[in-house]
Amino acid sequence: MIRAYELTKRYGDTTVVQDLDFTVRPGTVTGFLGPNGAGKSTTMRMLLGLDAPTRGRSTISGHAYATHSAPLTEVGALLEARSVHPGRTAFHHLMSLAHTHGIPRSRVEHVLDLAGLTAVAGKRVKGFSLGMGQRLGIAAALLGDPAVLILDEPVNGLDPEGVLWMRNLLRSLAAQGRTVLVSSHLMSEMALTADHLVIIGRGRLLADTTVADFIATAGGASVRVRTPQAPALHGLLQGPGIDITGPTGTEPGELEVRGADAAHIGRIAAAHAIPLYELTPRTASLEQAFMDLTQESVEYRITAPETTGAPA
Ligand SMILES: Nc1ncnc2c1ncn2[C@@H]1O[C@H](COP(=O)(O)OP(=O)(O)OP(=O)(O)O)[C@@H](O)[C@H]1O
């Protein structure tokens, strides 16, 4: 379990993390989401004792990180800036970490295999691609068989096969009862990987919710219907659990129906000889809901270049 209590970090006059309170539970993948510069890495560094909070505190398995006697076996971490000696091979990098905690060679071989790096274990790290570097970082994080994992943008640099591998790995680590906190700026990826979401913007907590609830509040799924007999269809569709908007003054023939699928609506319309001009299932865009939630807190916004009124 990871807990943050009013975690706050200021650099000079700038507050980059403010009063963050959240809990990351075992047995789940928790997605830590926010736009660029939201404060995800800073928060993770504070959880890992690499940055001191200006105010507030955090615990991992009930203790501050710095008080753990053998941190590699308690918490596995992957941070964006890696410190791997470029002249070392992947195997020697992991062996040197293993020595600090009395971890046997067999475990090094096991995590190399888990990360899909056995074939390149003897290669120097300086020749590694970004994706191979990420895999090596994951292997290092898993070395001590820790109950808690804190991973900063682990899919960064991975190809589609690597992204799928990472998704399955995170899910299986959580299924083993581990606590998994994984940062990302991609809502769509987290919707496929995480059970729970902690969303921040400009260092503040914006949402602490299950993925299922986020999808439901994002609008869930609806069906757009166009018909010349909208008031009649509206009346026929009404029932428990069904929510209908329209017809409106501007679009008299249009209904937005939640709680019934297109097949059900089509059958009712056919049974009453109501012509349909459109019957379109619509799924709420999670990425759009995430952008709506965080838009006020995006640090760097792309603005359209100003039009200068081109001379004739
Ligand atoms: N050492 C530092 N000194 C001053 N400002 C810093 C320092 N470290 C981070 N910041 C600022 O804190 C803010 C949050 O940065 P952080 O890297 O935690 O965000 P992030 O959510 O991880 O972003 P990204 O997705 O881009 O990695 C940014 O505005 C960044 O410029």
Automatic annotation (TrEMBL):
It holds the Pfam family ABC_tran. Keywords: ATP-binding, Nucleotide-binding, Transport. It comes from the Bacteria. This is ABC transporter ATP-binding protein. Residues 2-227 form the ABC transporter domain. GO terms for molecular function: ATP binding. PANTHER family: ABC TRANSPORTER, ATP-BINDING PROTEIN. InterPro entries: AAA+_ATPase, ABC_transporter-like_ATP-bd, P-loop_NTPase. Belongs to the ABC transporter superfamily. The keyword ATP-binding applies.
